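This part of the workshop introduces the protein records we will be handling. A record pairs a protein's sequence with a compact description of its fold. As an example, a complete record with its sequence and its structure tokens follows.

_____
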Amino acid sequence: MNKLKYIFSLSLFFSLLVGCSSNPQITSEKSISDSRLFQLYIDDDGNLLDPFSKAVIKNEKKYVTNILKNFEYEKSKNKSLELMVFIHGGLNDFESSTTRVEEKKDLMLADKKYPLFISWDSSGGSNYADHLFQLRRGVKAEYLGPLSSPFVFIEDMLRSASRIPASTYNILIGQNSVPIFLENEEEESARMNMQRIRSQGFTLHDNPNDTGHTFWDWWSILNPIKLVSAPFVDGLGTGAWNSMLRRTDLVLMKDPGKENGGFVDTAVTQFFDRFSETFGATKKDNIESKGMPVTIIGHSMGSIVSNNIIAKYSNINFNNIVYLAAACRIKDLEYVIAPYLHKNKQSSFYNLTLNPYRDISENFAFDFAPRGSLLIWIDTILGDVNSFQDRTAGFWFNIVRAAEETFPSEVRSRVHLTQFGVADGSPETHGSFGDYPFWKNSFWKGEHEQKPNSESFFSWFF
């Protein structure tokens, strides 16, 4: 079941916000078993939380120092150890985020990767609650927010009602714009572009198992319940989506409310400030050192956070930038990733996508909600798409059509575009990338070593 759609369309606005108030600090000796040495968890106000107790950590500097010291300690024992930053996407609650660290850190350490999981409060109910009860013009309104919430809810309901014609058209016509036996204009354009960009220096890892839709993708397309649920996905989901976008900014800058007294750096910003000073590129006597190599991986909305980090810390040597089903816009790659690749001649960019037919036909619970993965939802329902460059970068038909304009010729040889196959053990849903060894170079090139684990907590995030 696609939990994103279930929460957005059925119960998004019934969840309550969760608060934390205590402030313990890490006091144990350096230990590879302590997950706090591998995670920075940022709450909905930009505060750092203890992954064990959910308590707000007051001494963020000490917490960050412990992580940096442990990294240096582990690297002193293993010179080939490399820092690998992973940033998840939306609909991650506290438990799934912290459990992920426990499940993956030892596997990554065994592969000589020191993992730093940047986690942020992206649970669906919490974000809609913020939208409904607190957020007004991008900040939390302590008094006006709750007082005005009935009007916001009425607005959401009116939006849902006004979107009935558009959502009905999308269900009856738009979702069938890629017929079973006939290739449409978008597909044809993408295929033509694939041939051209391959000759322009891009590295394509496109799985040949590109079979299109089958009967099993379409047998439930006429489920009438989605005609009712679709307008609410728009009316309620848009507010939650906008709140999640705001929280991607809070990963690097705390909410400028009364408690913070202005704009204050988060623990994530403090970490990268200090890492940049210690291990970043430096220039002396006109000789520039490259700095310690770092791999940064962003899944879905995690790519938005990754872009912010890369733009802010351009002197860090991000030698591998890996985006899994990126929810960021194509123009973000043009304005952030392409310039960074131009500056850092050793850096490579990997853009991994599902097979496009998997994105198009993804559904849950007998088609109770509009079809398509999150990326399709952003491009058609949730996002503000004013031009092609506003479309999501993690959808194969988008990126292959935009690659030529996005990446200049001098960086194309270091741009890898990977499309996974259909029914061959590859990722087949937007949330399934975490079931694979996402930290391995072979996976970035479309190879994989294991089939998905249905019990993985990664299926909760996009």
